């Protein structure tokens, strides 16, 4: 097994994860990383930079849970960008899911969110985070209804999709401009795992074709438009902006 755990009873579950996300071949190509599993779930560590700590997906007790309770509700920028403030609860396809944080904000506000993730380890972390959340007595029932993940690349999945999402949401990786010490430790591990999403421009035409109402693209404030395409409107936050490509009004 490549996932290290002291818990023998969890091995069948972890073997399933290793198989589902082809983690064995990923680990062979990436000996710098280690996956571990303990009471708090699956975790990724970067062996050559242990001080950076690990990455997990924890919707139940982590920062996401705090933001759900104390965040800005439907008034926050991401909710406005997908059109939630207009009284609609759109179905959102998050085509670059990552650790599922943005998707969780939308799901907690009532949206049904389908998540695509192509990186095997990010997908495995997300899968484990979702499994744990589904079993939680407080959030489990709406999580089961509102969040589900598909492992694969949106370059193919969007073109083949039979879903009719109101909104397609894109948040591809973009190189950080700040000096690396200022970038949060967890983000540094994540960046060294995933790299840049240099092929992200090609997602926009597929996303625009599939969405029935709008495409929302999250960008750092200094980044150019995705695919050099000017949006219909922009919603700005402190460090990011949401570029919104409107196709039809939200109902
Ligand atoms: C910046 S992260 C997204 C963060 C996410 N919005 C969150 O709140 O946690 C970008 C993620 O998109 C994934 N990604 C990029 N291009 C993709 C594609 N074509 N299909 C599926 N996933 C993709 C990357 O592997 C990475 O995990």
UniProtKB/TrEMBL annotation:
Binding sites annotated in the UniProt record for S-adenosyl-L-methionine: 101-102, 117-118, 153-154, 171
Coiled coil: none
Catalytic activity: guanosine(1516) in 16S rRNA + S-adenosyl-L-methionine = N(2)-methylguanosine(1516) in 16S rRNA + S-adenosyl-L-homocysteine + H(+)
InterPro entries cross-referenced by the UniProt entry: 16SrRNA_methylTrfase_J, SAM-dependent_MTases_sf
EC number of this enzyme: 2.1.1.242
Molecular function via GO: rRNA (guanine-N2-)-methyltransferase activity
Location of the protein in the cell: Cytoplasm
Keywords, ordered alphabetically: Cytoplasm, Methyltransferase, rRNA processing, S-adenosyl-L-methionine, Transferase
GO cellular component terms, semicolon-separated: cytoplasm
Function of the molecule: Specifically methylates the guanosine in position 1516 of 16S rRNA.
Family affiliation: Belongs to the methyltransferase superfamily. RsmJ family.
Protein name: Ribosomal RNA small subunit methyltransferase J
Organism of derivation: Pseudoalteromonas rubra
